[in-house]
């Protein structure tokens, strides 16, 4: 596809929402509903332009399709962005107006938390729509999905270590963690519990202070953390941190983190492979949050034990992808996309059998 619509290739539907009275400007992108409704979080962020916001939501929604497929969920991929600074624009009126935009899509898109949104926000959004997950438990949701996301990244890191070093033990390993938010800080906790040495960084001084006193943790500048001489680097902030500038400087043998879209381009996965760096595809290892909120859609409602059990399958999926990568001679990123698209085609194709 060429021309002005080329960037939308593969997306089923993209919706722009606007409400002047509340200041709401949002974009909802549904990449695929082959496996089920498109589920993905809402990012509330002060983008420099609507074009930048559109680029982000299209990339994120595509990754959500692959994330759901690799996690074995009967869900498609979607994502939404609200344009603006949540510290300035977050109001009940805006969130409820956003909820009405979601409701207008009739269940094709189900939202949840992401950067800039919280379980408390989802509780407000769901006052206007049935299709909001991840609200506070007191409001019937599953709460903070960052807990299971961090756990899944930790399990994925152990699986990547097994493939790279011959053992999944992280005790004594040196792990560099970029980003100490809802996922990164909890990941550091898991690593410290296992006896890993951790070098960590975040733009927030307060976030750094929360982990600085843990045994084996050293704090460095954000610009330096991914380039330290560590066994594993773990991006857990915003995406596109692995590019032509950073990849040649990496000293670690494994990259495994919770941030979405860590690769600036798909070709950067090839560049990592060329350097002998094992990349754990982000949409595989960070699926714990999606698994957590998706469980709210199960008959009978949310079960923490069931969600946890599903997250326990992340290492097996990553091992399958690494094996596919080695067999086909391609990067783990390309292998993961192949595994995801294979399931989307085979299981999603069952819709050709009509059901009354």
From TrEMBL:
* Record-annotated Glutamate/phenylalanine/leucine/valine/L-tryptophan dehydrogenase C-terminal domain positions: 146-352
Q: Where does NAD(+) bind?
A: 179-184
Q: Does the keyword Oxidoreductase apply?
A: yes
Q: One GO molecular-function annotation for this sequence?
A: nucleotide binding
The record's annotation in SUPFAM superfamilies points to: Aminoacid dehydrogenase-like, N-terminal domain, NAD(P)-binding Rossmann-fold domains
Keywords of the record: NAD, Nucleotide-binding, Oxidoreductase
For this entry, list what GO says about its biological process: amino acid metabolic process
The catalytic site is made up of 79 (proton donor/acceptor)
- Family statement drawn from the similarity comment of this UniProt entry: Belongs to the Glu/Leu/Phe/Val dehydrogenases family.
Q: What is this protein's name?
A: Valine dehydrogenase
Which species does the entry assign this protein to? Egicoccus halophilus
């Amino acid at each position: 596809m060429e021309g002005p619509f080329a960037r939308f290739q593969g997306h089923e539907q993209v919706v722009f929402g606007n409400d002047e009275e509340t200041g709401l400007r949002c974009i909802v992108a549904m990449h695929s509903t082959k496996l089920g409704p498109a589920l993905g979080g809402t990012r509330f962020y002060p983008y420099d332009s609507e074009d930048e916001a559109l680029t982000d939501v299209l990339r994120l929604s595509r990754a959500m399709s692959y994330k759901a497929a690799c996690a074995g969920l009967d869900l498609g991929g979607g994502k939404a962005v609200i344009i603006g600074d949540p510290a300035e624009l977050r109001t009940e009126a805006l969130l409820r107006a956003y909820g009405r935009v979601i409701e207008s899509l009739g269940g094709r898109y189900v939202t949840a938390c992401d950067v800039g949104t919280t379980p408390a926000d989802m509780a407000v959004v769901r006052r206007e729509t049935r299709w909001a997950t991840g609200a506070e438990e007191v409001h019937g949701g599953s709460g903070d999905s960052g807990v299971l996301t961090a756990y899944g990244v930790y399990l994925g890191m152990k699986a990547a270590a097994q493939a790279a070093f011959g053992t999944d033990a992280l005790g004594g390993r040196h792990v560099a963690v970029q980003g100490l938010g809802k996922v990164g800080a909890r990941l550091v906790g898991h690593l410290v519990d296992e006896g890993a040495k951790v070098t960590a960084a975040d733009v927030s001084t307060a976030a750094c202070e929360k982990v600085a006193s843990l045994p084996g943790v050293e704090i460095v500048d954000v610009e330096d953390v991914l380039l330290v001489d560590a066994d594993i680097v773990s991006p857990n902030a915003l995406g596109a941190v692995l590019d032509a500038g950073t990849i040649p400087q990496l000293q670690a043998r494994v990259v495994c983190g919770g941030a979405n879209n860590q690769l600036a381009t798909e070709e950067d996965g090839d560049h990592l492979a060329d350097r002998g760096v094992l990349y754990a595809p982000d949409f595989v290892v960070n699926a714990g949050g999606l698994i957590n909120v998706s469980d709210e859609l199960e008959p009978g409602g949310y079960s923490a034990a069931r969600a946890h059990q599903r997250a326990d399958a992340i290492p097996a999926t990553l091992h399958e992808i690494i094996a596919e990568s080695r067999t086909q001679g391609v990067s783990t990123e390309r292998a993961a996309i192949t595994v995801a698209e294979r399931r989307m085609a085979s299981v999603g194709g069952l819709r050709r059998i009509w059901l009354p």
